[in-house]
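[Automated response] Your request has been received and processed.

Submitted sequence:
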Amino acid sequence: MIQREAEQDFLPYSRKNGISFIPFFPLASGLLAGKNNEDTTFHDFRASLPHLQGEAFINHLKKVNQLRKLADAKQTEVVHLVLAWYLTQEAIDVLIPGAKHSEQVLDNLKTLKVQLTDEEIRQIDQLFHP
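Generated structure:
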């Protein structure tokens, strides 16, 4: 959702050839899970990721806060909204969101209950489109 380069080459090729595309880090190393704020600091590999540093991080947090409004209106969590958006993309049939605990795996299944309208899909897409 944050890095959209795949939409130019990989997704059209995948659609054309009937190949399922599996997004790498669909939650952007946790950013799109909706649990970070301006005071969040990282002390692992995420500390070196450009989208989690400085002004880029702040800008992404603003977008996540917009997602939170939509998620609240749908009575779901940001993480489920984001994963549901991925599943609306034509070439994406499978997601592998990271999970450190079995509870997170089970929680991710709530995504399957989130139904997005065409307007909501467009809204999310426009929010993160480059």
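Summary generated for your ticket: The chain has a mean pLDDT of 93. The helical segments are 10-17, 54-73, 78-87, 102-108, 118-128.
If you did not submit this request, please reply to this message.
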